[in-house]
Amino acid sequence: MKMKITSIGMVLLLTIGVITAVSFSLGCTEQEEAPVEPSDNTSIEPAETIPAEPTENTSAEPAETTPAGPAENTPVESAETIPAGSSESSTEELEPISADDITNIEWQWTGFQDSDSPETRITVPDPENYTLTFFADGTYYIKADCNSGSGTYTLDGNNLTLGPTTITLMACGPDSMDGEYLSLLPSVGEAALEDGQLVLYPGPEGDKMFFVNGGEAEQ
User: Fold this and answer.
1) Is pTM beyond 0.70 here?
2) Is 60 exceeded by the pLDDT of residue 56?
3) 163: burial class by Cβ within 10 Å (0-12, 13-18, 19+)?
4) Most confident of 7-11, 33-37, 86-90
5) Which of 162, 160, 136, 159 has its CA nearest to residue 150?
6) Which residues are CB-contacts of 9 (< 8 A; sequence separation ≥ 6)?
7) CB of 129 within 8 A of CB of 110?
8) Distance CA 198, CA 109 (A)
9) Angle 117-121-123 (CA atoms, 0-180°, nearest 5)?
10) 97 close to 158: Cβ distance less than 8 angstroms
């Protein structure tokens, strides 16, 4: 009888142990399956990235291209061509001269007038040293201080052209005006007689060279 009670007690203990073990096992399983609550130190969710809306691709409409009409072909008035040997230097109408009016006279250079300052006249100190003589055969003779030379000329009305001069090339000194004299004569384009003076117009700007009658000259 005593052994029977003992056996029953052992069976009960084993039963209780089994039940305890099963309960413990079930409790652990539930604990593993229970979701772990996040701690307060939760990571910040990234801000929602909103995809940028594509910029409206409104390409600028090309400006209306108006076909250019043909440019008006307005003829440009060409500048008046001045024939060689003439100029528009004198504003006044010059009285035509002939070779007989100027030949066989020793013309002496007395002064020069610049068109930019017509009120100013440069005076040549020794006119007898700067002479110009025309001859009926179409030749001329010049004296430029210590130098002298000759060439050919043409006269048509007031248009006067002096051809190249064959001249000596001596140094006449620092006070000489031979350089100015020889540089002006080749550009002469017109000639006129004013109050007994011979007036030559070098270049197209209206400059003037003045000569007085120095007497008859022989060739």
Assistant:
1) no
2) no
3) middle
4) 7-11
5) 162
6) none
7) no
8) 9
9) 150
10) yes
Q: Which of 196, 195, 205, 190 is nearest to 113 (CA)?
A: 205
> Which amino acid would we find at residue 105?
I
Number of Cα atoms under 13 Å in the Cβ half of residue 44: 3
- Look at the block and give the residue holding tokens 């996040």: 38
Residue 211 near residue 102 (C-beta atoms within 8 A): no
Q: Tokens 């009016």 appear where?
A: 101
**Residue 65 phi/psi, 5° resolution?**
-90, 115
* Cα distance between residue 203 and residue 179, in whole Å: 17
HEC states along the chain? CHHHHHHHHHHHHHHHHHHHHHHHHHHHHHHHHCCCCCCCCCCCCCCCCCCCCCCCCCCCCCCCCCCCCCCCCCCCCCCCCCCCCCCCCCCCCCCCCCHHHHECEEEEEEEEECCCCCCCEEECCCHHHEEEEECCCCEEEEEECCEEEEEEEEEECCEEEECCCEECCCCCCCCCCHHHHHHHHHHEEEEEEECCEEEEEECCCCCEEEEEEEEECCC
Nearest 10 degrees: CA dihedral of 90, 96, 98, 99? 10
Give per-residue pLDDT as tens, 74-85. 444 443 443 443
